[in-house]
Specification:
By secondary structure, the chain is mostly helical. It has one domain. It is 78% helix and 0% strand. It is elongated and about 50 Å long.
C-alpha cells in the first residue's frame, strides 16, 4: 500500500485539484442562480467556491501542512450537504427537499475529495519520514 501511495502521490494531487475546481464551478453556477432570489445563499456559494479554489491551490502547491484543513473543509461540505436534506439548511432555515443533479454530483465529489485528500496526507507523512 505504501508503494502504491508513493507512486501515485502526484496523480492523486492532480485529481484533487481537478475535483476542487469542478466543485467550485458547480457552486459558482448555483451562486449565480440564487443571487437574485436569495442573496445570502448566493453569497454563501460564492464564498464556498472561493475556499475550494484556495484548497486547490494548496494541494497543487503541495503545502503539506495544510492538507488536514483541506480534509476538514471537505468533511464540512459533505456534512452540510447531507444535513441540509433532512434538517433545516443553515442559511435557508428549511430542509432542501429535492436531490437534484447538482446535489448528487457534489456528494460524489465530496466523497472522492475526502478519500483522495486523506490518501495524499498519509502518503505525504510516509514520504516525509524517509
Amino acid at each position: 500500500m505504501s508503494q502504491f501511495l508513493r507512486g501515485n502521490y502526484d496523480l492523486f494531487r492532480y485529481y484533487i485539484v481537478i475535483l476542487l475546481i469542478v466543485w467550485a464551478i458547480l457552486h459558482f453556477i448555483l451562486a449565480i442562480s440564487y443571487l437574485n432570489s436569495s442573496p445570502v445563499l448566493g453569497d454563501f456559494f460564492i464564498f464556498d467556491s472561493l475556499l475550494a479554489i484556495i484548497a486547490a491551490v494548496v494541494v497543487y502547491l503541495d503545502v503539506r501542512l495544510l492538507y488536514i484543513p483541506v480534509i476538514v473543509y471537505s468533511w464540512i461540505n459533505y456534512l452540510l450537504l447531507a444535513e441540509s436534506r433532512y434538517f433545516p439548511a443553515p442559511v435557508l432555515g428549511y430542509p432542501l427537499r429535492v436531490i437534484g443533479s447538482f446535489a448528487v454530483a457534489t456528494f460524489a465529489i465530496d466523497v472522492a475529495l475526502i478519500v483522495l485528500t486523506l490518501l495524499i496526507w498519509l502518503a505525504s507523512r510516509r514520504i516525509g519520514n524517509e
